[in-house]
């Protein structure tokens, strides 16, 4: 269904996306001596081959050969297809590969929390360094809030982790750390961000018709 829909979709013809000049035609991202090579089908095939290696671990040689042949077949079948179709197919394969890797991990939830915390820290750094409340307050506040929200699951998970005690019973969670982090997030989200927004443009929060000095 996706192949038929995206192959003849008029909306993507002539539309550029990043380095791709036209989503409705073959990408031709690599040019060597006047010859254009379509890079997206090669990336898609590489992702398919990695998926085959993971999926066929412990499988019979016949099953491995079938999957490898299918991956190479799709390289030639989709090589001249529109870049929008191949891009969609590649993203779908990458998502399936990541999902499979997560399922094979011993603690997928912990890995997901760590990745979310790293992304949250990057958003916090971007919001603090790149944008200012005087120029783009909404963007800065959104980045800070989203970054704090992404880091929160890992913080809560670390707080809830029970450390083994010297005796038979595990130590109780440290309530001081939990409430301290909660108070910090409350002050940061409810105090620092609104105060920075107001201080960046105080005249927007003043009613000039009913102005009086405190």
Automatic annotation (TrEMBL):
Task: Assign the protein's first listed, main location to one coarse class.
Answer: membrane
Pfam families assigned: 60KD_IMP
- Keyword Membrane tagged: yes
Q: Residues in domain Membrane insertase YidC/Oxa/ALB C-terminal?
A: 3-103
GO MF annotation list: membrane insertase activity
Membrane-topology annotation of the record: Multi-pass membrane protein
Query: Does the record bear Membrane in its keywords?
Result: yes
Which UniProt keywords are given for this protein, alphabetically ordered?
Membrane, Transmembrane, Transmembrane helix
Q: Kindly list the places in or outside the cell where this protein is found, as annotated in its UniProt entry.
A: Membrane
A Gene Ontology cellular-component term: plasma membrane
BP-aspect Gene Ontology terms = protein insertion into membrane
Q: Per the UniProt record, which residue ranges are transmembrane?
A: 29-55, 67-91, 111-129, 141-159, 175-195
Q: What is this protein called?
A: Inner membrane protein
């Amino acid at each position: 269904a996706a192949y038929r829909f995206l192959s003849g979709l008029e909306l993507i013809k002539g539309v550029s996306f990043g380095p791709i000049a036209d989503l409705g035609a073959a990408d031709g991202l690599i040019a060597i001596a006047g010859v254009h090579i379509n890079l997206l089908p090669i990336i898609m095939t590489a992702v398919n081959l990695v998926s085959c290696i993971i999926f066929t671990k412990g499988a019979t040689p016949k099953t491995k050969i079938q999957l490898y042949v299918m991956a190479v077949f799709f390289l030639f079948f989709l090589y001249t297809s529109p870049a929008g179709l191949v891009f969609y197919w590649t993203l779908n394969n990458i998502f399936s590969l990541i999902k499979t890797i997560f399922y094979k991990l011993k603690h997928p939830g912990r890995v997901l929390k760590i990745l979310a915390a790293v992304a949250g820290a990057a958003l916090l750094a971007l919001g603090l360094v790149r944008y200012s409340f005087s120029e783009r307050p909404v963007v800065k506040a959104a980045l800070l809030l989203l970054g704090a929200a992404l880091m929160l699951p890992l913080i809560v998970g670390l707080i809830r982790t029970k450390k083994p005690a010297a005796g038979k019973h595990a130590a109780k969670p440290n309530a001081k750390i939990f409430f301290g982090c909660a108070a910090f997030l409350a002050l940061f989200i409810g105090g620092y961000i609104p105060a920075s927004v107001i201080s960046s443009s105080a005249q927007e929060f003043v009613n000039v018709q009913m102005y009086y000095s405190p």
